[in-house]
Design a protein that fits this description.
Layout lengths: L1 H13 L3 H6 L7 E2 L2 E2 L4 H6 L3 E5 L6 E5 L11 E4 L3 E6 L16 H7 L4 E2 L5 E5 L2 E11 L2 E9 L7
Antiparallel strand pairs: 1-2, 3-4, 4-5, 5-6, 6-10, 7-8, 8-9, 9-10
């Protein structure tokens, strides 16, 4: 009871509500809300949270989360015919369970993920905490996270 009161009090001070804290989806460790890595296109569509954007002639199809539409020539999700939902790209307003979002500092990123490593392309990559079958990739420009995504280790949609 005391813990619940403290949580409610801290949420009120921050401007959030207890309902927000419980219902705001995070990007990870298995997806975003009801949209989960590995889902088939049919399963993803059944959630009601996605919309097909670019058909797959061969390979992966491009989709968007309805709540986070992307510009004309980009997509927010890739769904592979081989592995299912392969990747979800973060939009402004999303965060990881560890609190990292677009705009977080590189220092915050390294504090949240102390074992993160920089790859040969300059992106920061780490296995998703709580899901060894997926990884996060973060792009940093001028000391701030400017992009990130979660993807299956075995995704086959992009390099």
């Amino acid at each position: 009871m005391i813990g619940a009161s403290l949580l409610a009090g801290s949420l009120l001070v921050s401007g959030a509500t207890a309902v927000d804290a419980q219902t705001t989806p995070t990007l990870g460790p298995y997806g975003y809300g009801a949209v989960k890595l590995g889902m088939t296109a049919k399963q993803a569509k059944t959630t009601g949270d996605v919309v097909k954007k670019m058909p797959a002639d061969v390979g992966c199809a491009g989709w968007d989360l309805k709540k986070f539409p992307t510009p004309k020539d980009s997509v927010g999700i890739y769904i592979s015919p081989n592995v299912g939902l392969a990747a979800i790209f973060a939009a402004k307003g999303m965060k990881t369970p560890e609190g990292i979002k677009i705009g977080s500092t590189g220092k915050q990123l390294k504090a949240a993920y102390p074992h993160i490593k920089k790859d040969v392309h300059g992106f920061y990559v780490i296995t998703v905490p709580g899901n060894k079958k997926a990884y996060y990739t973060f792009g940093i420009t001028h000391g701030k996270v400017t992009q990130y995504h979660i993807a299956l280790n075995k995704q086959d949609c992009f390099n």
